[in-house]
Design brief:
Blueprint: E1 2-8, E2 21-27, E3 36-44, H1 49-53, E4 73-80, E5 90-93, E6 100-103, E7 109-110, H2 127-140, E8 147-150, H3 156-167, E9 171-176, H4 179-188, E10 193-196, H5 202-209, E11 214-218, H6 225-229, E12 233-241, H7 253-270, E13 273-276, H8 286-298, E14 306-310, H9 315-323, E15 330-334
Parallel strand pairs: 8-9, 8-11, 9-10, 11-12, 12-13, 14-15
Antiparallel strand pairs: 1-2, 3-4, 3-6, 3-15, 4-5, 5-7
Helix pairs in contact: 2-3
């Protein structure tokens, strides 16, 4: 029996390409004492993984060349020499882009069985949901009647953040790309307005959609959009930050310097709170989050769209398509058909 896995073959120079990854086959490892052998059922592909393969300082744990790509998984215990886990148990794990992995149990979260939709723990009940929950609840703290703008609402995190804002009684304006994504935002999730993020008259459209200014802006995309939003932020506005402002929009160093000076002046003049955050700093709130999000999902108050691709070998191209904005919904790779 072999373990297929995808490793980082080389760091990208420019745009990420399928050739930066390699598919390898190795023997399936055997668990030692106090270990379990896990089989990956579903693999989560999240945009933040791009930071882990770039040769740059960031908050993501770097993936070394030749190392298995990182990623959260829904996995099944295939063999156990660990007292807390039995064969057949379902767990939330960190197997990465491979069919099998060993664990000592410290990185596992046991899942209740049976689960109607196990992929939910990779989406609304997993990292994307937790990010949205922290962005709005910890930093944004929107109040009923305020206006919230989400930079990228067609992805898993942005869609959930926008819906949380609506549940708090806010006017919620979101940005998205393709027409089908904008239609989902206004018809399925009932946001107050959805604007094409690359519209040449974006600032004018935002002014119309946000007549009272913007109280909370969730920056989860990066790029020049932030410069359009900044003049519309109200005094005391809050900006949860998960993107890289202006990071990949082609601006040269002199233009970025001008932007930074304008940003510094605006933050001071309007007493704007802008704060980045890392999920690992808030692990103690995960139980609270799961309880609340489970209630919203069960009651139909939060809707969530998934995009499931079959086959581990398709992970590299699917991941690239996420970065290029060609996927819609939370992207999950179905690695094994059995559940």
């Amino acid at each position: 029996m072999t373990n297929r896995r995808i490793v980082l073959r080389s760091r990208p120079v420019g745009a990420l390409r399928a050739e930066n990854f390699a598919l390898e086959e190795h023997a399936v490892p055997a668990p030692s004492a106090d270990q379990v052998l896990l089989r990956t059922l579903y693999l989560s592909l999240d945009p933040y993984l791009h930071a882990s393969i770039e040769d740059a300082a960031n908050d993501a744990v770097p993936v070394r060349v030749g190392q298995v790509m990182a990623g959260s998984t829904v996995s099944r215990v295939e063999a156990s020499r660990h007292g807390d886990y039995q064969e057949g148990d379902l767990v939330l794990a960190c197997n990465g882009w491979q069919q099998y992995a060993l664990s000592d149990g410290t990185d596992l979260i046991r899942l209740s069985s049976p689960i109607v939709r196990p992929t939910q723990v990779l989406g609304p009940l997993g990292l994307p949901g937790f990010l949205a929950y922290l962005a709005l609840g910890k930093i944004g703290q929107p109040q009923a009647g305020e206006t919230v703008v989400v930079a990228a609402a067609s992805g898993a995190v942005g869609s959930l953040a926008g819906q949380i804002a609506k549940l708090r009684g806010c006017r919620t304006v979101v940005l998205a790309g393709a027409a089908d994504k904008r239609r989902f935002a206004t018809e399925d999730t009932a946001f107050d307005a959805c604007i094409e993020r690359r519209a040449p008259d974006l600032r004018a459209r935002l002014r119309v959609a946000c007549p009272n200014g913007i109280d909370v802006y969730f920056e989860n995309a990066g790029g020049a959009v932030f410069n359009t939003v900044l003049p519309l932020l109200n005094k005391g506005a809050r900006v949860p930050l998960r993107g890289t402002i202006g990071g990949r929009d082609g601006a040269d160093s002199s233009e970025k310097a001008v932007r930074l000076r304008y940003l510094a002046r605006s933050l001071a003049a309007k007493r704007i709170k802008m704060q980045a955050f890392i999920v690992s700093d808030h692990r103690h709130r995960y139980g609270e989050f799961v309880q609340q999000m489970s209630h919203w999902l069960d009651s139909g108050k939060v809707k969530f769209r998934e995009d499931i691709v079959d086959g581990l070998e398709n992970a590299p191209r699917a991941f690239i398509s996420v970065l290029e904005g060609r996927r819609f919904g939370k992207l999950v790779i179905r690695v094994a058909n059995q559940y």
